[in-house]
Design brief:
two-stranded antiparallel sheet; 1 helix
């Protein structure tokens, strides 16, 4: 299974690296959830070890990073 990595850039300068299944499509992808979220919505990013909850208004942008096999 391939993993698509994303860098989530926050307004305070921090960068979170999160990932999802490379073949994932539709409204549940990180990019779709980011663009459809309102400013007061909370986005959840999961990793194998933890979950992060970030307010949409604290995210500047999401950039693709890498693909891991």
């Amino acid at each position: 299974m391939a993993l698509q990595l994303y860098n989530v850039h926050l307004v305070n300068g921090d960068v979170l690296q999160v990932g999802e299944d490379y073949d994932l499509r539709g409204p549940q992808t990180i990019v779709n959830r980011f663009y459809k979220a309102g400013d007061n919505d909370i986005l959840e990013f999961r990793t194998p070890f933890t979950s992060m909850y970030v307010s949409r208004k604290n995210i500047l942008f999401v950039a693709t990073a890498d693909v891991l096999d």
